[in-house]
Amino acid sequence: MKLGLQIVRFDWPGSPDNIGPTLGRIGRAADDAGLASLWVMDHFYQIRGLGPVEDPMLEAYATLGFLASVTARIRLGTMVTGVVYRHPGILIKSATTLDVLSGGRTYFGIGAAWFEREALALGVPFPSTKIRFELLEDTLRAAHQMWAGQTAPFEGRHVHMAEPLLQPPPLTRPHPPILVGGGGERKTLRLVAQYADACNLFTGDLAMLRHKLDVLRRHCDDVGRPYDEIERTGLATLRLDRTAASVAEMIETCRQIAEAGIQHLVFSMPNPHEVELFERLRREVVPAVQEF
């Protein structure tokens, strides 16, 4: 199993004045700890369950560009981009630019979007669920076409591009891994099987997690794609402090999630600004989890 870190809050002690320096320290510490990936949410307001909408929140692609400049090895991605927030052609260009400037160290995380309040608050159209999923499929198709270097006009249900030229192309070959977030059994997991390189599922209920992976396997069978081509990633919140008990608990949680079928666990933690804890990740957690 691989481990990735998702940064979900920016209200660290001293913020907002110290957001940039603290974020830089977190990025470097995650890179040095041997974590496989580093993620930020693509939201403009803080989301329910994590804090009030007034809490600090950074725009995702500018943040990932900053993190690319302070890291050398770790992969970077959004968990996940809401498809309605940017025109698909511009979104693919932004994701490609990040891949080029990071030296080919990105994921392309995308989903159908759900946070209607922030969209409407900022004047972003928020169509029906049906249309958002159609737009998501258009965007996935467009990404495959543009990353293949094909500049013929693109015609989707909602997306139309006369000349989808993409220069420079991504450094990741054949393209940045596409991660579709969400566990919807009829639409989302079908899109994973058809277009994506990775899924992302919640891991709080292990029985449900196994069920979702079984559904994904059936969708892969339906489209004639090997299930093992899909990287199975999951989301969790883990706690780490200076005690041996917290390390043991973190490792055991990872073991259980790995046994349920997850290969790459992306976790958030309430205290990533305590960067001295990343040394414990490097020495004790990452080596143990890699054995699962």
Strand order of the main beta sheet, please? 3-2-1-11-10-9-8-5-4
Structural class: alpha/beta
Shape: globular
Largest sheet: 9 strands, parallel
Order of helices and strands: EHEHEEHEHHEEEHEHEHEH
Strand coverage percent? 15-25%
- First-last Cα distance: 5 Å
How much helicity do the residues have?
40-55%
Low-confidence stretches: none
Q: Can you give the mean pLDDT?
A: 97
Total number of helices: 9
Number of strands: 11
C-alpha Rg, in Å?
19 Å
Description:
Helix 8 runs parallel beside helix 9. Helix content is 40%, strand content 15%. The protein has a domain of 128 residues. The chain is of the alpha/beta class. The chain is built from nine helices and eleven strands. The longest helix has 19 residues. Strands 3-2-1-11-10-9-8-5-4 form a nine-stranded parallel sheet, covered by helices on one side.
